[in-house]
Amino acid sequence: MKRIQKLPDHLVNQIAAGEVVERPASALKEILENSLDAGADRIGVDLAQGGIKLIRVSDNGGGIAADDLPLALDRHATSKIGSLDDLENVATLGFRGEGLASVASVSRLTLTSRPHDAEHAHQIVAIDGTLHPVEPAAHAPGTSVEIVDLYFNTPARRKFLKSENTEYAHCEATFERIALAHPQVEFILRHNGKVVWRLPQQSLAERVGALLGKDFVEASLPIDTGAAGLTLTGFVASPTYSKASRDAQYFYVNGRFVRDKIAQHALRQAYRDVLHHDRHPAYALFFTLDPANVDVNVHPTKIEVRFRESQGIHQFLFHSVHKALASTTAGASPAVTLDDGQPAGDDATVAANVGRNEDTLAAFSTAAAAARAGDSPQRMPFQQPRYEQQAMPLHVAREAIGGYQRQFAGLREEERGPTPAVTDTPAGSTMIGNPTAGSSIAGSTLATPLSAAKLAALPDASDGIPPLGFALAQLHGVYILSQCEDGLIVVDMHAAHERIVYERLKNALEEDTIPMQPLLLPVSFAADRFEVATAHEHGEAMQRLGIELAPLSPTQIAVRGVPVWLQDGNPVELARAVLKDVREIGLSQVLTERRNELLATMACHGAVRANRQLTLTEMNALLRDMEATERSGQCNHGRPTWSRLSMRDLDNLFMRGR
């Protein structure tokens, strides 16, 4: 066994860099926090190749004296704390004094600084952790940190970095999180020489609107509460602005962006009575408390904190947000309106479009609640319609019954016959449904002549009635009512069609590739940086899933093809769902271990939606597909797709024979 030995400082710094500097965004975070701690009110950021080639941060903060420049790149050397009491009451974003030293050990770093009372600036260069002598330099009051070729001396670590687009997306997300919490500071972000963000000094509402979208601010409720030394300010979005993921959740503790389980649970509980369990709230909240009551030294990147009185913090956050949400009323004007009157950005517009249907349904629900509470009609967005049943004349009922008998007469006659041969009918051929109506669900033509083989393959049933019977009607745009041999069948059409599409997708992917339907007119949508990076990195391989995506710009993606069975679905929602899974899980795992989960998501987006009116032809075609599809008794989520009410059950409901 080898003897215990002390590691050299350079190796120690490189080990620390593995924890502190996970990727270029981590190095950017450390430097931005140093600039803010130095009191800067103007910060410029320059990136090249997603931060892998270059990260340069310039500020107008207090600066570093020439004699202190070597110490700034030494481990555990800092001006922010000097004792245990300082550590327990730390009020700065950085305090360990290991960030710059760790970055310098895995890059070529140049630190240039000039205090405001100095005549000129000085700089120091560190290459592979080796410090060069301090030299005079030209620089305005403040500090600049330039990092070139991150991980150039640790090729094994550099291999774990993602593509340029992905790394830049993480850098931009870090920049936005820090800029959001400091609206009093002017920020500029450039990537490959192009200005991406220019944020002037502004109010909190304006900064939130600039970064998260003006529609977020106008759909939000402002919060400004305090009690027992605790303060909570910011914005919580109304439940109608909910999201499918947690991407729009920003929570800060004393100006530091954190992800804390206690805070997340408290905020989730505050939304419990007004938010569907599959949706996530959106908020930008800034929580302030005595630094002595929170421990920020529990994670290498300071992304987690530990509260001294966690139960009290939970109650304060819960009641503050719950009270704000309880103050909303139907038809109320936006609580916050930005003054510039400019339309929201692309991302915000897309978010509004995606949630438009949900907002409409929520508005109906809110209106109904207001009516029950006794609100005046003027405060309701629209009146709830009244439904009155009218009598049906006898001749109309007879015509409807006769038409239905004529519609299926040919099929029943042939099924009753000794052989399944196709015979002439008044319509010219034997068909399921209306012989004169052609329609489709998920790309399959339904009104097609039945061949002898297909008639022979129908499930056995007496009197020519298939197991799931023949469709009678559609109920509230959700359920199909069908008359079977022994009663009534009720089918959840979305769940049933979802299973059918799912099984078809599985079978096609097992044969290597899902057939694609090119779109005559490609559909473009506004995408965030992570979606564009994923489309760049995996676009060609994703064609195996039947989806063709083409990035048009840093904020636009075009959908050029979708799976043939999903051509009637929403291509934008489908593309977003697939991009989300590929980004979070990885394409290789999506196509192997998580394949069925992704196909289930795709099937859900492509299945026929509620409130879509189906013809009898379409309804009967769906029933026949269910009879021929494996595991069609349950949908992809395990819920039943159909239920039977026998004649005995119906007789018991009406007490017949008693």
Mean pLDDT: 77
Radius of gyration: 32 Å
Report how far apart the termini are. Answer: 90 Å
Uncertain stretches: 329-333, 340-392, 414-440, 442-461
Which class do the helix and strand fractions yield? alpha+beta
Task: Let me know the number of strands.
Answer: 25
Largest sheet: 9 strands, mixed
What is the helix fraction of residues, given as a range?
25-40%
Strand content: 15-25%
Number of helices: 22
**Rough outline:** elongated
Oligomer: single chain
Give a short synopsis of this structure.
This protein is of the alpha+beta class. The protein is 36% helix and 21% strand.
Question: What labels describe this entry?
Answer:
658 residues, alpha+beta, 9-stranded mixed β-sheet, 5-stranded mixed β-sheet, 22 helices
Question: How is this structure best described in words?
Answer:
The chain is an alpha+beta fold. Helix content is 36%, strand content 21%. Strands 1, 2, 3, 4, 5, 6, 7, 8 and 9 form a 9-stranded mixed beta sheet that branches. It has a 5-stranded mixed beta sheet with strand order 10-11-14-12-13, sandwiched between helices. Strands 19-20-21-25 form a 4-stranded antiparallel beta sheet. Strand 3 (108-114) and strand 4 form a beta hairpin. Keywords: DNA damage, DNA repair, Endonuclease, Hydrolase, Nuclease. InterPro entries: DNA_mismatch_repair_CS (IPR014762), DNA_mismatch_repair_MutL (IPR020667), DNA_mismatch_S5_2-like (IPR013507), HATPase_C_sf (IPR036890), MutL/Mlh/PMS (IPR002099), MutL/Mlh/Pms-like (IPR038973), MutL_C (IPR014790), MutL_C_dimsub (IPR042120). This is DNA mismatch repair protein MutL. Residues 471-614 form the MutL C-terminal dimerisation domain.
